[in-house]
Amino acid sequence: MCQRCVRAGWSCSWDPETEAIPSAVPSRIFHTQRETRFFDFFRANTIADLSGWASSYFWQRLVLQMAHSELAPRRAVIALGALHSDGVNSPHVLRYYGEALTTLRQLLTQSHSPTGMVSIDVCLATCLLLSIFEVARRDYDAAQIHYTQGVQLLKQHSQTQTQTQHRYQLAFYERTLLAQFSHLETLIISFLTSRPGYHQDAIFVEYNITQLAIPSCFPSIPEAHESFIRLLHSIQNRATRAANTLAFASPDSVPDDDGIFPHRETYSASMRQAAALRAVNQESLLGLTRWSAAFYACIASTQNPSLADRRVIALLKGISTMLYIRCSRDPALGQMAADAFLPEYEFAMTQFETAVDLAWEERTSSPSSSAASSSSSSPSPTSDSITTNQSRPSKSKPAVTPLFSLCTGILNHVYALHEACRDARIRRRGLAVLERMPYQEGLWTGEKASRVVGAIGQFEERNRVPGVEGVEGIKKEDRVVGVNFHYYPDRFKIIADWERGRREVGWVMVEL
């Protein structure tokens, strides 16, 4: 299969005899042995960290194909591998980064010409890699510049595509680059710009939910995972656009002088115009029902699933249940609508707990696995001695600081569960799950996430009816309808908007 088809997800129309793709990129495409070493480190370690909870077609195949054939992503990959391996003080890191940036600029100057799919995907992937590089060395302003450049390219490309080009080429972007930019937005950029992730600028190609290609049975768990990512992003974009259209003349919401986003306008409009949102939710439920049928058929047909597959199965069960609740809640009932889904919340929480347990089990059973390097600061819940042995630096190799993951994980979904489910027991379980997060998701380690989510929950918990741990313990007037924040590298300011009608009811600063 040719590299263009591999990267686009196509199939060649001929069957020539071809040699197997080598497990490592031949050293002749690198200038020095040092570059080869940094690339090998990226391939063996950085990719495992970025992939996080599940195997990733983008990281484990597409990026490596690009590094083999395209100069700009190759230099960006080497720069990121050098940063991850040797740290920010390495004398080679900025040189490789500068080479990647120079090559990217040369490509961007040619963007006015009909360069085709190869150049646009190379530019987008390089923007993504450079943004990750800047996040890793905590230059967040530069990270946002690279992200914004990529988003502008996505907008321009989607506007210039013909119907035929859109039909064949955008499937590639939908499955790979769009998902990665959405992960970057949700886990990192939305916090750096002090706005909620679900207020993201929904510029990414919006899928027609009813026309998503979903088979009767997925051939594998990774295929089910990739399909769910497309469905999830489709529903999120559709719901965000619908809510903003109902609430605002312009879909772009901006904060007031106090940094408050207009949650109340969105919340009130959603309740007033519930019928319009029900139609959107019904469309989403139809897509989710089709996916669930294919997913559970895949589970039934999978004999002896691997530990990794079992982990992804639990993760998908939990996230899909949260998506089902989101699409099934009655908008007219506001915050009270969540109370009817306590069994579903309990099921989702159990699945998240299972996924975390399996992730730690996989790590402790495979100490030589590259995934072991992606551990967050959270300890394993199973054995202190095992954790100590794994975290002890090797005598022959210095310890490497883990990189963050950029994937669909549990962070946002456990937060959504903690926010919507007012059962105190489930909330405590949610905080415990966050503390044990096996991967750092974007900017968030398990310890930081648990601290922030716990502080948000206290806006309601401090008004809980004494002795009542069920959902009825939080009265309607004491329920939070929206949370705003300001993110700083060392602290996190949280601002809450309550049901009772005051615009800003209080704030708390959480040290990170």
Q: What's this model, at a glance?
A:
By secondary structure, the protein is mainly alpha-helical.
Structure, described:
With 512 residues, the protein is mainly alpha-helical. It has a domain of 194 residues. It is built from 18 helices and three strands. The protein has a three-stranded antiparallel beta sheet. A hairpin with a 3-residue loop joins strand 1 and strand 2. Helix 10 packs antiparallel against helix 12, helix 13 runs antiparallel to helix 14 and helix 17 runs antiparallel to helix 18. About 11% of the residues have low confidence.
Entry keywords:
three-stranded antiparallel β-sheet, single chain, mainly alpha, 512 residues, 18 helices, 58% helix
Q: Can you tell me the overall shape?
A: globular
What is the chain-wise order of helices and strands?
HHHHHHHHHHHHHHHHHHEEE
Could you give the count of β-strands?
A: 3
Distance between the termini: 48 Å
Question: What's the helix count?
Answer: 18
Which sheet architecture does the biggest sheet show? 3 strands, antiparallel
Fraction in beta strands: under 5%
Unreliable stretches: 14-23, 163-170, 196-202, 368-396
Give the spatial strand order of the biggest sheet. Answer: 1-2-3
What is the residue-averaged pLDDT?
79
- The portion of residues assigned to helices is 55-70%
Radius of gyration: 23 Å
Structural class call reads: mainly alpha
Keywords: DNA-binding, Metal-binding, Nucleus, Transcription, Transcription regulation, Zinc
Region (Disordered): 366-398
Biased composition (Low complexity): 366-383
InterPro entries: Fun_TF, Transcr_Regulatory_Proteins
